[in-house]
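Protein chain data
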Amino acid sequence: MFPRAFEELLAAVPGGNASLGEVRENLYFPVSLDEYGIRVSWQSGNPQVVDSFGEVHNSQVAEDGQEVEISASLSSGAFRREYSFFVLVLPPLYTEEERRELAFLGYLEELDEGQRGSEFFSLPETFEARPSRIGRSGRRTIM
């Protein structure tokens, strides 16, 4: 019973991801398999990247990805079986606009750090060789 139940779990775990070898979104970690009368508890070998609820935290993952071991404990009454498998977590896919926005926010954080203790915060005149301008709302934007 446990091997068949685990096969079903393994098929469901990727959720909206292409496969367990290409994880960019949250995984699906069900807590029970009612048709088998089985309870499931989950554990991650790296909860900073994939937590025990299947939430993926991949904003700091390198381009080549981070392998994470996942353990599932299946129990039914007095019987228990442990299973483990690996997933490869990859960084999120960003649009060009999102990439530019993240880079700009990082740049502003660096500027902020450099201007600590200063009475004012000076916005950059340019970013990535693109001039900034102040719009009608008084907001500076990068063109």
Remarks:
- The beta strands are 32-33, 38-44, 66-76, 79-89, 126-127, 130-134, 140-142.
- The longest helix spans residues 96-114.
